[in-house]
Write a structure and sequence with these properties.
about 210 residues; alpha+beta; 7-stranded mixed sheet; 4 helices; globular; binds zinc ion
């Protein structure tokens, strides 16, 4: 899911749609629209010769959205692991830090994992180690909304066709009335049907060490 240094960001300026409001690309294509008719961030161009190196912490937006749609592992891009209890997720939090009922209906922008990458992440990811993590099986992950940049009309310039950036990061549900003003970068899933599991036991059952 990380972007690579060889993948150039696609710069696509946005304008306000005449009459209806909301944002649009100047050269918009039907493929630029997602769920709820949200305008989708165009992501990055495929690397021309070499991909370079991964930039951890920089999300490749269309890869993230694809991983969420198809429930692919967010490290290697293969199918995420699935058992009768559902798809495997690692959350960088623990029940002790959260209100009762957590993580049922938790909203996340992190795609699930395969067993091999989960084992590696639990061993190597300093962020997970620091905050503690929880392994989950999720029976019914449901599309919820998008995370992206929120734009607004420029009230200082009457009838300007150019929006201003209102918020660098905003999470909106598909039904949110502000959705037409969001440049949707990442998909948000709602984790429904959660069972907390022991990662060691899951790895052993899957034959992964
Ligand atoms: Zn993987």
């Amino acid at each position: 899911m990380a972007a690579w240094t060889g993948e150039a960001l696609i710069e696509a300026p946005v304008i306000i749609r005449p009459q209806v409001g909301g944002i649009a690309f100047v050269d918009e294509l039907p493929t630029d629209r997602g769920v709820g008719n949200a305008l989708l961030h165009r992501g990055r161009r495929p690397a021309r010769d070499t991909r370079g190196r991964p930039m951890f912490g920089v999300v490749h937006t269309n890869r993230q959205r694809r991983a969420m749609r198809k429930l692919l592992c967010h490290v290697c891009g293969n199918d995420a692991d699935r058992t009768d209890l559902g798809v495997l997720w690692l959350l960088d939090n623990t029940a002790a830090n959260c209100p009762p009922g957590w993580p049922e209906e938790e909203l996340t922008v992190h795609p699930p994992l395969c067993l091999g990458c989960a084992a590696q992440a639990a061993r190597q990811c300093p962020e997970l180690e620091k905050k503690g993590f929880t392994a989950l099986r999720v029976r019914d992950p449901q599309p919820y909304g998008y995370r992206g940049k929120l734009y607004a009309r420029n009230l200082d310039r009457h009838a300007s066709p150019f929006p201003i950036l209102a918020r660098g990061t905003e999470n909106l549900a598909f039904l949110d009335p502000l959705l037409p003003w969001l440049l949707a970068a990442q998909s948000i899933l709602c984790l429904v049907g959660c069972t907390i599991v022991d990662l060691g036991a899951e790895l052993a059952a899957g034959g992964v060490r």
